[in-house]
Amino acid sequence: MYALHVKQQIENPKLAAFCFNEMGKNPERVLSQMEALEPMQRTLKLFFAQYENEVKAGNLVEYSPMHLFTFIQGLIDYYFISKPFFESYLCPNHADLSIDFEKNLPEQICKFLENALTKK
Length: 120
Prior knowledge:
The protein is mainly α and 120 residues long. Helices cover 79% and strands 0% of the residues. The chain has one domain.
C-alpha cells in the first residue's frame, strides 16, 4: 500500500504540496472529492483490521490506528514536501543522493515501522 503511494509521489513530486495547499484553501471541496474514493475507504478499513488483528495477537504495540495511519502518511508526504529545501539549502552538492533515497524509501519506511511497532 505504501510502496504505491511512494511510487506515485516519485512520479508526481509536487503532488503532496499541491494536495496540502488545496486542503488549506478549500477543505470542504477536497473532502467532498475524497469521500467519493471508495477504494481509499476500503484500504483504510483493511489497514485498521489488519493492524488491530496484529495488536490482539500480541505482535504489535498498540496505538490508535487512525493516528498510526496519519503518522505513516506523514513520513511519506513530508519527504516530498521538504525535498526541494533539503536539496537546495542543506545539501546542494548531493542532489544525486535523492535518487538512491527515493529508490529505498518504501523499504526504509517498512523497516522503521517494523522496528517501531513490533513487540520485542
